Target: DNA-binding transcriptional activator of the SARP family
Amino acid sequence: MPVSVTFELLGDIQAHVAGEPIDLGHARQRSVLAALLVEPNRSLPLDLLIERVWGDRAPRQARNTLYGYLYRLRQAFAGVAGVRIDRTPGGYLLPVDEHAVDLHRFRLVVKRAQAEPDEQALDSLERALALWRGQALGGADGPWAQSVRRALDQERWTALLQRNDIALRLGRHTALLAELSALADENPLDERLAGQLILALYQCGRQGDALTHYQSVRRRLAEELGADPGPGLRELHQRVLAGELTAPATARIGTPTPRQLPAAPRLFVGRTDELARIDKVLASGHAPPPVLAVVGSGGTGKTALVLHWAHRAVDRFPDGQLHADLRGFDPAGPPVSPAAVVRGFLDALGVPADSAPADQDGQVALYRSLLAGKRLLVVLDNARDTDQVLPLLPGSPTCTVLVTSRQRLTGLAATHGVPTLALDVLTDAEARDLLVGHLGEQRVRGEPGAVAHLLRWCAGLPLAVGIVAARAAVYPDFPLSALVEELSEDSGLDALDTGELSTSLRAVFAASYRALPPEAAEAFALLGVAPGPDIGVPAAAALLGVPVPRLRGLVRHLETGHLVRQHVPGRYRMHDLVRVYAVERARADHADSAEAGLRRVIDFYVRFGRAAERVLYPYETPPAVGEPAGAVPDLPDDTAALAWLTAEYAGVLAAQQAAARRGWHPPVWQLAWALDTFQRRQGHLQQDQLAAWRAGLAAAERAGDAAACALAAWRLGAALARVGDLGGAADHLDLALAQSRASGDASGQANAHQSLAWVCEQRGEDTRALHHATSALEILRGLGVPMREAHALNQAGWYAARLNDLDRAARYCEAALELARRHGDRDAEARTLDSLGYLAHRAGRHDHAVERYEQALVGFVEVGATYDYVDTLQRLGDSHAAAGRGEQARAAWRTALSLLDEQHRTADAEQLRAKLARRR
Model:
């Protein structure tokens, strides 16, 4: 059947339905669509989409902005059969027939042409090249788009050259000559293209012009690159001179051709972007010699990546491949000296030992002379440092060098401009594919729970996956759950100890640890006990008890050895298995300093967290929370506070858990309060909020602190209400109200009343809800805090509207909106606009309701209130539906459903799913 929907990426990003263009919005919104289409039918995590759209310049509210783009793209394709953007557990997915996307049609046709006879292949390649309408991903910007564009340009160029070769074989030289001449003018240093033009000229009877073009290319190479033409072009020149091009090229004899590459890895998965980067950096025809260093921690698969690429690109190096394992971090012995490597290379190049210079400098000079002008690959594996690599670099731009190392080799980059490719761990899907390669799909598919446990254990490290698979392969008839049980009984890295130094993870990490200076080794151990999956520079400085400049110097040692990684500017993290080793070192070598460091970093999170919460909710700081001691952080506005909480969220949660485990009571409820407003706005964090306040209440009870107990009971009750446990919520809120009355805490009483009002609403008791809301309003009017009064007015207006007392509701809500705007509180303003939208909907003024709801949505995006955003989005759909705009209603509900699933609001999602089903 013909595809009714087509997507175009080989030019400006476009989509057509039955030939009619679809409005895809602005450039960044089109970039989201491109990111979903470049890798077809793959679920892309939200963070990856953000990286592809903005690179390292994502706005503070990137997630909410991206939700908006996805919502508008869904609307653009609303009603188009077969086109939908799905939310999956792994991210966002656009299911698509690859034939509907010009990029994938291009690739499919080019691949098919490789197996076709020349006549058919030529037609296929012409059709593939005709799909290009200009620059790929036209209009998209940023590092990802530029990287994809470069890779696609190379694919197009390769297909074009392949087309030329076939056309010349078929005698189409006359028709091709003009195009070849134009291409050669644009790409004067491409020797393959030059050879094609020379051959076409010769076959057209223009032998003199063919020879002239060869001399022109030779001069250009000499002037711009200091190089001679390669052996293929030189041979073609000789055959043109001889007037005979039908005989096969004469094989060169004399110097042996080294073929030292070790076998390619039997199993290799993923690494698509990394392979494309190697292709780009090592493209031929550039001076100085193309060199790339692949760096990363032990076990990430650097050698496997390099060998996979080298075997795939072996045809680029007709003069051979040299390989040396430099053993830079070999636990069994010292690194190999450059002199020994050069001597081995000379042997491979056919230099007798007795004819080589005796000194290292002379041998290096001879080595470089032998490589001059050759298309040869040099692989230098497992380098210790820059000094070990420098003598082994060829001087000829025709040679290519790949280096692997656990060190960052910054000296190589600084002195020779050598780019580096930092290799990270595998994705979850890639790690599973690797395990399948070892054990087979049937065995892996049969035990998904055990496999998930094993993959979590390996944390994406290819070496760890290989070790686990090897243990499983010993007993092919045993269930994988038995291996999980066995691994669980082992301690730390003992589970991944093979008994062989080269494949023992502890030995791999120890070799890097032993290379550290003493202070850096202690910093490594302390960073292992840091709470959270990563840590920012200020928190890390607090943990280590050093100023920030000193912290950066210490961490630089760890980055150089790939023991920590600065995955975003100013934030560091360790691979999970490296961290296990760091904790071992902390317990064995630095126990006292690790405990002191943990106290310091928890205090840091308390101070900063309280300051952030005070910015987000400046109207109340309960006495149990206390005032920050020491330097007060500079968080000038909501944006800064949200940015800090977003970055440090996991660390603050982990710090609270660490304090609870150690019986350090006040930080437990103080950190729960620090996260409270942030968690409320980010609706997907409900379970975290419950856990935080349960821990806070338990700590308050153990400490015997009545004020802290009342605070924790109130916030825990409110959190329970949000997840639907209305009975538990009421119990805790009644307790909080009673404790606040007993202590004379009017503010606490108002808080409990407001939360109880919400519980009553969920129970369908709107009259009682209004009673609690107006009780809170009466109390707060006497406290002189205008914005707390505004919140109470809005709440009372909402319940009055639910009881159809619309005039009273309007008075309350308009007063709340005036206060919110007067005090510049965008969160309160958005909430009140939502209430006014609900009022208009109840009054039958649906267009006015839509206007208010859309204003509220803008506000919720600005303040990062994703929980409230999705509720308002549902109500926006209701108003569209009531106004007879069914498709707009369904689009709003579908987006809301995706967000509800993401927030794990199961009951709400099921209700909305049922509503959508009824409206089809």
Summary: The chain has a mean pLDDT of 85. The chain has five domains: 5-130, 272-416, 428-505, 590-784, 790-920. DSSP finds 41 helices and 13 strands in the chain. The radius of gyration is 33 Å.
